[in-house]
Amino acid sequence: MKTTSILITLSILLGLSCQSEQKESKRTAFSAKAETKISYSDADPADLIDQMVVIPAGEFEMGANSDQADPDEYPKHMVRVDSFLMDATEVTNAEFSRFVEATGYVTTAEKDIDWEEMKKQLPANTPKPDESLLKAGSLIFKNTDGPVPLNNPGYWWAWTTGADWRHPQGPGSDITGKDHFPVTHISWEDARAYAEWAGKRLPTEAEWEWAAMGGLSNTVYPWGNELDTDNEIHANYWQGDFPYDNEEKDGYYLSSPVGTFKPNGYGLYDMSGNVWEWCADLYHHEYYDTKKPEEIAYNPRGPETSLDPDEPLIPKRVLRGGSFLCNDSYCSGYRVARRMKGDMKSSYNHTGFRCVKDFE
């Protein structure tokens, strides 16, 4: 096996299944499809920084809510969560910058890869790649020239040395003028460290799903059951043929500033699309099977152990919400019940987070 293909393997083992990013993001008055209506918000992103909203206590059916559901979304089961506070938006570059300035924190993507640790997650006798390929970096989406098999993310993900939250597209890129964009290239460990510093925590998977519905019941998306009602775009996701033709009907190729699209019923922005969001829970593909449909799970905290049958050696955590790369042909990650999983040390240019806080 060539070292380049090993690193593609490493990059996939570092993570997820559904992802995006390579052009400069753009927002136009809207030129791509004049007939398309977009649910833009009139919020000023600067006013949303540090804002938290109250999520009321409630009871709901957690799990599969459409024919797109994956096996790990079954069976539906009753859950009740207590009231809590949740960040109105995904954590931004400006907020994460304050954390780093105050603590000197170094993210996972800014650290060289520890081969001794990494090889424990690879097949036995996998040869060590060239040292240059173990330098600090992260994964960046690269659109393809045409259709490719969608069961191999290696076609559109590229390990990029020097890519991190400050350099989201790799060396030569920066976040100047992007204070209000969601911070990306964030691992679960990075998100947890920020949450602890901020006096908050990461949401449980149950809290996240309950909050995403915004007061609606058993809906597929935060706004209802139709992805594009009357050809209206409600979120930042991939319109067109993934991973080579993004029609950009929503006005963006990459991530968008927080508060760009209308919030859900609880006042939460980007609970669908933009960037994936880390949750506190470990991921286990059969976790829902442990729940009895006739019983109510109170404030569930997830399984005690992690298991992804595709990569059983790697403990994983849950991500929710989808990203600007999600598309119905690939992952439909913008559904409120959609579950994704990622290695706790993985980072991508479409992965971020938001925090929650318990009432005193």
TrEMBL record:
Molecular function in Gene Ontology: formylglycine-generating oxidase activity
Transmembrane feature ranges = none
Q: What is the lineage of its organism?
A: Bacteria, Pseudomonadati, Bacteroidota, Saprospiria, Saprospirales
Pfam families cross-referenced by the UniProt entry: FGE-sulfatase
Q: Which InterPro entries match?
A: CTDL_fold (IPR016187), Sulfatase_Mod_Factor_Kinase (IPR051043), SUMF_dom (IPR005532), SUMF_sf (IPR042095)
Question: Gene3D superfamilies per the record?
Answer: paralog of FGE (formylglycine-generating enzyme) (3.90.1580.10)
Q: What protein am I looking at?
A: Formylglycine-generating enzyme family protein
Give the domain of life. Answer: Bacteria
**Domain Sulfatase-modifying factor enzyme-like: residue ranges:** 50-357
